[in-house]
Amino acid sequence: MPHLSPLTLPLLLPLLFPGVRLGGANGGIDGGAELAWTAAPGTAQSPGKGAPPPAPKVQEPAGPAPTGAAEAAAALERLFAAAGVRVDRAAGALSFGATVQVRDDLLEYLLVNPHGAVHEALFVAGVPADVLNAALLALGLERGQNVEYVQKDPQPSVEELRAGARAFDIVPPKGDGVHLYATWREGDDLFFYRIEDLVRDLDRGRTMRRHTWVYLGSRFVERRRSGGEQLFAATAEGNLACISFFSAGSTLLTAALPECVAQSSWLPNGWLLPPVGAEVLLIASRAPLLVSPPSMESAIPVVAAEQQPPGGKGR
């Protein structure tokens, strides 16, 4: 099971484990539920470096009947909303605010936190990585498989390598994922784009190909200065979604196109994007969308209309 911090674990308990009740305005756990971390079958009793933690085993306490599923779902959505993420489980979608970060330089990341790789990210958002991870799990996502580099056998000759042949085959990320969108308003106009439309592929001379962004769920990293403390990599590094492939698998989401092996092919589509610093609403959906889910329309921010095209008049 992917990472759930002590703060976000209570958010998912009513849905993942119906025997646990949410109670109180702060979303605490009622009934004195006892949690015991146990290893999944065939694994060690403690999570290894880079591995997700084992699933929690919940011992249901005696007492009042569990809260109804509808009540639990509503409470869960309120808790996510308080953390900056709007979750609509019926629509299979979630949304959160972000700002445009880079409009005229190469990209390696789609989305980061303020302490992440902001110099090469299209958007920056303040939503904590573990909260966003829990929200993705609440949509029913399952952990996918990151990119793999398989060494070719036989290996290309020196001449072939010099001519540009690769020494390995690329197996793109695969598995469960979401479709990503960005939306905002300028005056009376509503803008709603697939995320790929906002990213230019320099090799193709077009926008990025539309596809499903694979859910990785990040991983754990070890903090050596703290006696081997295990940290959630997306939280520690601040990088939430990558465009170029990274074999470490530290992000929550990854692009999944074979061409994403390149790290110098991606630029923002500045002709469609609002100015740097403009607020947008990012939407992740299990199914393709033509418009924003009705539950999220009120959260779409308003951006001041630009008076001239990107790069100045006449360019």
Round the Cα radius of gyration to an integer and report it.
Answer: 21 Å
Strand fraction equals: 25-35%
What coarse outline follows from CA principal-axis ratios? globular
Largest sheet entry: 8 strands, mixed, barrel
Structural class: alpha+beta
The low-confidence parts are 1-7, 13-66
How many distinct domains? 2
Roughly how many Å apart are the termini? 50 Å
Write the layout of secondary structure elements.
Layout: H1 9-16, E1 21-23, E2 28-30, E3 34-37, E4 56-59, H2 69-82, E5 85-88, E6 93-100, E7 109-112, E8 121-124, H3 129-138, E9 148-151, H4 158-162, E10 168-171, E11 177-186, E12 189-194, E13 199-201, E14 206-207, E15 213-215, E16 220-223, E17 229-232, H5 233-237, E18 239-242, E19 253-254, E20 266-268, E21 279-285
Parallel strand pairs: 7-8, 18-19
Antiparallel strand pairs: 1-2, 3-4, 5-6, 6-8, 6-21, 7-18, 9-10, 11-12, 11-15, 11-21, 13-14, 13-20, 15-19, 16-17
Helix pairs in contact: 1-2, 1-3
Structure in words:
The protein has 315 residues and is of the alpha+beta class. The protein has two domains: 1-68, no CATH class; 83-299, no CATH class. It has five helices and 21 strands. The strands form six sheets. It has an eight-stranded mixed β-barrel with strand order 6-8-7-18-19-15-11-21. Strands 14-13-20 form a three-stranded antiparallel β-sheet, with no helix packed on it. A hairpin with a 4-residue loop joins β1 and β2 (28-30). It starts with 8 loop residues before the first helix and ends in a 30-residue tail after the last strand.
